[in-house]
Amino acid sequence: MIPATISASELRLGDALPVTEKTFSSTDLVMYAGATWDWHRLHHDDGFAKDMGLPAPVIDGQVYGAFFAKHATGWLGPKAFVQRLNFRMRSMAFAGDTLRAVGQVSEILDGGTVVLQQQLMKGDDIVAEATTSVLLPE
């Protein structure tokens, strides 16, 4: 059964998004590299990353954007449309790291658009933060 999509009228300022957590494996990073055609060795080659002084391959920054979008639409529902997503990377994360997406509703605009403030966390550290505007059905 397809879940219902939340409408803007059901939301309140400060409503928290459910926490979404994922551990990113090397396989995840290779699959993402294939989807985006970003084959830089830093994102999938453990030996190369270690030669560069890093503990493991670096999670590609584009993954953060995808994770923020999935975090928003996974909660809001299948008819939620991401209109705009701006994010800023604050620190690196690596293959094997578990990232946790958290967020809250920061604005509810006329016409069914809601604005979310989201953070991607690794432990207590912010890896990235986003402002995401999502259009919801009336």
Give a short overview:
This protein is an alpha+beta fold. Helix content is 24%, strand content 33%.
Features:
138 residues, alpha+beta, Thiol Ester Dehydrase, Chain A, five-stranded antiparallel sheet, 3 helices, 5 strands, 24% helix, 33% strand, elongated
Helical amount: 10-25%
Please report the total strand number as a whole number. Answer: 5
Radius of gyration: 16 Å
The portion of residues forming beta strands comes to 25-35%
CATH-wise, what's the superfamily? Hotdog Thioesterase
The CA-CA distance between the termini, in Å, is 21 Å
The CATH architecture can be named as Roll
**Biggest β-sheet description:** 5 strands, antiparallel
Strand order of the largest sheet: 1-3-4-5-2
Give structural notes.
This protein has 138 residues and is α+β, with helices and mostly antiparallel strands. It has a single domain, classed as Hotdog Thioesterase (Thiol Ester Dehydrase, Chain A). The chain is built from three helices and five strands, in the order E-H-H-H-E-E-E-E. A five-stranded antiparallel sheet has the order 1-3-4-5-2, covered by helices on one side. Strand 4 and strand 5 form a beta hairpin. The radius of gyration is 16 Å and the shape is elongated. The two termini are 21 Å apart.
